[in-house]
Write a structure and sequence with these properties.
This protein is of the alpha/beta class and 192 residues long. It has a single domain, classed as Alpha-Beta Complex (Spore Coat Polysaccharide Biosynthesis Protein SpsA, Chain A). The strands form two sheets. Strands 5-4-1-6-8-7-9 form a seven-stranded mixed beta sheet, with helices on both faces. The mean pLDDT is 89.
């Protein structure tokens, strides 16, 4: 018998500059006839009543895919940690699952695995790890860690991984080469 998982908020990060996409808004770039954000929305939507999208452009287009929109507190695209902080600050549930908008191959099993690990380690961030490689854009973070993460930001930290590691990160392990974690973040990868 499996235990029902508590509710979680889910944050889709779509607030980047899109440099590898020639400046295009990555979440809105089409793949298989739909914007990338639509693929993530389809998997995440059934698992939460608090779907948050971090976007710094095109809020009118992202609004259809989210319960809440957030944007970075600072201008000039300061990086994904800014989006994570904005998501944690507005999340309605105790844990926040974070996903990048350019990973349309994620599936329900990956999200449920992160949620189960968060249930087992409610005070710790859970970060996907492939072998020795951490994947910090696939994680679950307790909302209680907003204050220490804000402190890391104020101290100048911009790396999500370096901000999370001192907070007793717990790994959720995926096989090396797991296709669900593929970032389709260049035009060439989108065509493959």
């Amino acid at each position: 018998m499996t235990t029902a998982l508590p509710p979680c908020s889910i944050l889709l990060l779509a607030g980047g500059r899109g440099q590898r996409m020639g400046g295009q808004d990555k979440g809105l770039v089409e793949w298989h006839g739909e914007p990338l954000i639509a693929h993530l929305h389809r998997v995440a939507r059934p698992l939460t009543d608090d779907l948050i999208i971090s976007c710094n452009r095109n809020p009118e287009r992202y609004a259809a895919f989210a319960d809440q929109l957030v944007s970075d507190a600072e201008a000039d695209f300061p990086g994904p940690l800014a989006g994570v902080l904005a998501g944690l600050a507005t999340a309605r549930h105790d844990s926040l699952v974070v996903l990048p908008c350019d990973a349309p191959l994620i599936d329900r099993a990956l999200l449920q695995g992160l949620r189960q690990a968060a249930l087992e380690h409610p005070e710790n961030p859970i970060v996907v790890r492939q072998g020795e490689q951490w994947q910090p854009m696939f994680c679950s973070i307790p909302r209680t860690l907003l204050t220490p993460l804000q402190a890391a930001w104020q101290a100048g930290e911009r790396s999500p991984l370096r901000a999370l590691l001192p907070l007793d990160v717990q790994p959720w392990t995926c096989a090396e080469g797991d296709p669900r974690l593929a970032n389709l973040n260049t035009p060439e990868l989108l065509r493959s």
